[in-house]
Specification:
Blueprint: E1 3-4, H1 6-17, E2 28-33, E3 54-56, E4 65-67, E5 72-73, E6 82-90, E7 98-110, E8 117-118, E9 124-126
């Protein structure tokens, strides 16, 4: 289950109900968090240890929901990343805006040299 950020809620409201243009990002990125990002983008994103966001593409939606269409491979950590509890979709590879987010099915402690990947279809996003 995913939740929309305040930023995206306002952008969609304005685009649909106020005829105010919203330019969708060309590329979106998955970010990993050690705490809940919240609607207000207040969570703690992983940092250091060669961490970098990963670009993601999605399947066509069905009833407002879709999945990642390719496996996501994060860089190999050169230091511990902590316990990852949440994921987020952001509109830039660094900084940018939080679009939506969700809790991991199970928290995972990421150590140096771990393999960090998301298999095809495992990142479920829903606007429903």
């Amino acid at each position: 289950m995913s939740q929309l950020s305040n930023y995206l809620e306002n952008a969609l409201f304005n685009a649909v109900l106020r005829n105010t243009s919203y330019t969708s990002p060309v590329t979106v990125y998955v970010a990993l968090y050690t705490s809940d990002p919240t609607d207000a983008d207040a969570g703690a994103e992983v940092s250091g240890g060669s961490y970098a966001r990963v670009s993601v593409a999605f399947t066509a939606p069905s009833n407002g929901a879709g999945d990642n269409s390719a496996q996501l491979n994060f860089t190999t950590p050169t230091a511990d990343w902590g316990t990852v509890t949440h994921w987020a979709i952001r509109d830039a590879s660094t900084a940018g805006n939080l679009l939506l987010y969700g809790a991991m099915a199970a928290s995972r402690t990421i150590k140096a040299a771990d393999t960090v990947k998301v298999n095809v279809g495992d990142l479920d996003v829903s606007f429903a």
